[in-house]
């Protein structure tokens, strides 16, 4: 009997995790590492990602919800207590404040290794900061500064890490969030690669890296990719990424070393396709998506993190995360996948699909570059508009039944599931004390630090921001002095200003032709508008609002586009609004209904604030509806508080939702 072939080394296995407090997250990390996880992937809460301290009014309800709060160096120490950072490979999902979080990570590592110089510690650190700000303007919404200043921060970080932290990936170009926002495989390829071109061009023009070192810059660029359930197409997409990246780095940047041209990527498989209905089906979806990025050896992911089966319901528990880790381990250690060369080499089917994707992506890259590149295509709203339109087309296919989602629009009959028999027990509840704990932490931290040292460090940061020198030195000094996340970001906000990205809604293409259902809703919208306006041809006005720091706007955008198609006058002002701003817009526009979209879990704090504000403004009779990832028990409580309707991911029929909104408006105005 012949010996089995030697296996390749498996990819790095991670679980995207972080919640409530640094102590709770640290315990989770150490538990996951003990279970065989081989790298860390840190989820930060929204205030940390958008540069606010827990005591900021904008942070209310968001602290510790979708990740761990790290407002200062003391919390970074707690986050990695008893985890040797010089031996770890850590991925940090952080963008606008990436420079600040990397600085605190480095200082925490220095403190763990007092016998080594800061330079020696930095040389040993390995990991990745996501740091792709362009996709934040398009899909995820945790941007802070205008594009040109954000690119400067990225270039400064890249130059610093290439010289000081050579094993660090200073940026992770993210096509993941583009797919979540509706991108087709062609758009995902094109827009991610246009982002990479914008970043590399910025580093080159900054003059901080000489020609001899530029190959190293290219070699440290990594990508973070999404994998959908169409795993043959996803496999081809990854092979296309490899081919295009090799071509761009060789022809545009003259990189000769094939190792430096290698397409290096990590993956989080698709969360957009996870369903609240029959959530047990998500397990096989996740497995198929994992195969799309592991089957082809020449295009295999370097790191994989999988969502949990119940993420469409709420925050996964440790057991759910363990299940996802075990899916990876079974594939890597029980199957024979890692024993063979690339199993697709020579397949004419794969080759033809790869060529189709490459040609389509090249055409779209040329289109964006002709506009002036990725930043120009963000400023003009072109890329955002294309993504909103692509997402609307996908939603249309699902509602028409042309795209089958098992358990959602086909095969809907189901046995009672033991997994969801106790819905509230099937997810982890956010710690209600997390915000209080973070507030106390910041207060205690400020009491023990040297305020003069902090003020001097922040003044130097502002001075360097104005002068154009690399900001990493001043940022490290601010971290060592004890500045907070909000102070670092606030200092740069004063110099750089803030930014509001285009929403992409106004020019997006919605439903091409109205079927019977949409026509009926349009008639109801028109009739109700006329009745309320005394037959003067008035239109129903719907305000779509995104309160808090949640920047995942895909759902809100699709609601806005379909509402416009249904005949509503839609007021949508984008992301990150306070309850007060939403109430002010409702008053100014004299709306008939307020629709709130919240996916970060902050609904129980923010929705009551909007309800109270409307009452105080004399608009308490205007109905409020809420959509998001809202546990059943929270949904019941919101209705008790006065919310007219609650929609969750299981409510995928947008036209049906529009009909529901008309009924809510009629009921509120006594027209039933």
CATH topology of the largest domain: TIM Barrel
Computed over alpha carbons, the radius of gyration is: 25 Å
CATH class of the largest domain: Alpha Beta
CATH superfamily annotation of the largest domain: Methylmalonyl-CoA mutase
Question: Can you offer a commentary on this structure?
Answer:
- With 672 residues, this protein is an alpha/beta fold.
- The chain folds into three domains: 18-129 and 401-411 and 446-499, no CATH class; 174-381, TIM Barrel; 516-669, Rossmann fold.
- The chain is built from 26 helices and 15 strands.
- It has a five-stranded parallel sheet. A five-stranded parallel sheet has the order 2-3-4-5-6, covered by helices on one side. It has a five-stranded parallel sheet with strand order 12-11-13-14-15, with helices on both faces.
- Helix 18 packs parallel to helix 20 (485-496).
- The longest helix has 23 residues, at 348-370.
- The protein is globular, with a radius of gyration of 25 Å.
- It starts with 11 loop residues before the first strand and ends with a helix.
